[in-house]
Amino acid sequence: MRNAMLAVAVAVGCMSMPLQAQQAAPPADGIRTEATIVVEGEQPGPGLWLVRKGNHDLYILGTLRPLPAKMQWQSAQVQQVLAQAQEVIRMRGVDIDAKVGFFKGLMLMPKLLGVRNNPDDKKLKDVVSPASYARWLALKERYIGSDGGVEKRRPLFAAQELYVAAMKKNGLDTHDLAWPVVSAAIEAHHPTVTVVKETITVTDVKPLLKEWSKTTMDDMACFDNSMRLVETDIGTMRARANAWATGDMAALRALPPAEQWEACESAISETGIGKRLGYGNAQQKVRAKWLAAVDAALDKNTVSFALLNLNDLLGSNGYLAALEAKGYTVIAPDE
Question: Helix axis angle, 205-214 relative to 102-114, nearest 10°?
Fold first, then answer.
């Protein structure tokens, strides 16, 4: 069953128009919610970065999640670039390939779902601190409701369910809203698609799932940090989503970067299983492969296109800085 363990790791694991703020009395549960209005309808999205080598151009779209749930992204610039592009570079990251057949995969599904739960039938209240659990109960009541099943989840999985529910109730969507638009343009214009990924192959899933179900994860930091985001940062997430949707690059630069989820990722990669699978250094391999794909594209194509998470794109250690260090000319959308 391809991507079986990836399902574990993932399920395991924006302002050119004024934003309006409303004053309201503090909620009874003490959880602060910013009243930033989330944009709706057709929006242009952000401009594209341009990486140039001689007369060969690579256009890069910086992606973001979450985005406004009721937004329809209509980017004329992206459509124009994709109509000319000979190649599209798609970042897929770390890919888990579980070598089992379809029917065997169906038989494994209960075990796959079971690894979301705490070992030894423990509940959240048994594995997190009393203070963290009190915060959890207030957030759960507000965003999830009376679902008892989430109380069985490992802290990492419970945090994921809380985050998705909170985004939905605040008009935000955690899905990748950019790729379907790009995918449709690929279908229309047929450029070469280069997928950048590091594949970890699992030949025998059953013992791995059995071991995982008994493994305690160091996911307290992930749990607490996820709750902090929901408690205090929703207003910033809305503003960042609006800025992306409306193409307001100045606002995107002024706002703090989106959360990178390092604590949740390390809860997986630093377990004994994660290290044995090679998850720890997989991201470095992916980075090297993406930069090599860009080198090849700029050598052979007049026009290429790529998508990359904004956080990975920007900053002193970001991909744009690495491309500048290689000697390429990098032009920001608003330059």
Answer: 10
Residue 80 CA: distances (Å) to CA of 11, 186, 189, 288: 35, 12, 11, 29
Q: Please, which residues have CB within 8 angstroms of residue 303's CB and are 6 or more apart in sequence?
A: 56, 57, 59, 81, 84, 85, 86
Contact 330, 320 (CB under 8 A): yes
Q: What is the DSSP pairing of strand 49-53 with strand 329-331?
A: antiparallel
Q: What is the pLDDT of residues 80-94, one digit of tens each?
A: 999 999 999 999 988
Q: What is the pLDDT of residues 263-295, one digit of tens each?
A: 777 766 666 566 666 676 788 899 999 999 999
Could you give the 3-state DSSP secondary structure of residue 266? helix
Q: Name residue 93's beta-bridge partners.
A: 197
Output Rg (C-alpha) for the chain, integer angstroms.
21
Q: Is the separation of the CB atoms in 124 and 29 below 8 Å?
A: no
SS3 140: helix
Instruction: Report DSSP letters for 288-310, one per residue.
Output: HHHHHHHHHHHHH-SEEEEEEEH
Closest alpha carbon to 49 in 250, 335, 311, 291: 335
CB count in 10 Å sphere of residue 312: 20
Q: Is 168 exposed, middle or buried (0-12, 13-18, 19+ CB in 10 A)?
A: middle
Q: What is the mean pLDDT of residues 310-316?
A: 90
Structure tokens at 290: 């993406």
Closest CA to 192 of 88, 90, 306: 88
Q: What is the distance, to the nearest Å, from the Cα of residue 57 to the centroid of all Cα atoms in its chain?
A: 27
Bridge pairing between strands 71-73 and 87-98: unpaired
In the numeric block, which tokens belong to residue 106?
Answer: 């169906």
CA 241, 242, 243, 246 dihedral sign is positive
Q: How far is it, in rounded angstroms, from Cα 75 to Cα 72?
A: 10
Q: How far apart are CA 25 and CA 38, in angstroms?
A: 20
Q: How much is the pTM?
A: 0.81
Share of the chain above pLDDT 70, in %: 74
Q: Measured in whole angstroms, how far is the alpha carbon of residue 298 from the centre of its chain?
A: 27
Q: Which uninterrupted H or E stretch holds 251? A: helix 249-254
